[in-house]
Amino acid sequence: MKLKHTTTKRALLMTTVLTATLSVSLTINADNSRVEQFSKQTAAQSSQGNYSIIAQIGNNNRTIVSQSGSYQAGNFSSIYQLGNYNTAAVNQAGGNNVSNISQIGRNHNVNITQSGGTSRELNSSVRQLGNRSDIQISQSGSGYRGISVEQQAFSSNARPVTVETY
Fold it and tell me: How far apart are the C-alpha atoms of 23 and 87, rounded to whole Å?
């Protein structure tokens, strides 16, 4: 069990080092990121905790991740922001939920809220390209749902996208 945690820490460290290496040539201001992860004691003992990977390259990017696991399974989120003034928020409850966000450009906004049970997965994937796109995703229920949204807003006139399932 300890080997698995060490491997995970090494992978996260490599991701951090790679991100830092890629951003050395950019002028970067302090970005705002907040991660909250909760799981019960048995989840931590069986390596079923929550995992988040956040990579920010640019200025004034913001992320908020709140994940709540169960005793059976944790959640996973990844956020990649390349550009300036991007905002990403993820709120996952239950277990086995997966969210992936990629924001390339500036002034993108995405908000993913997922719930679900512990044995079935809710999966959301968002890719935003260009400037000024807005995507809201909300899921609830038992699981086995997958939503994938790609929005290209190169003219800065993209209409907001809202997806809700219950």
Answer: 19
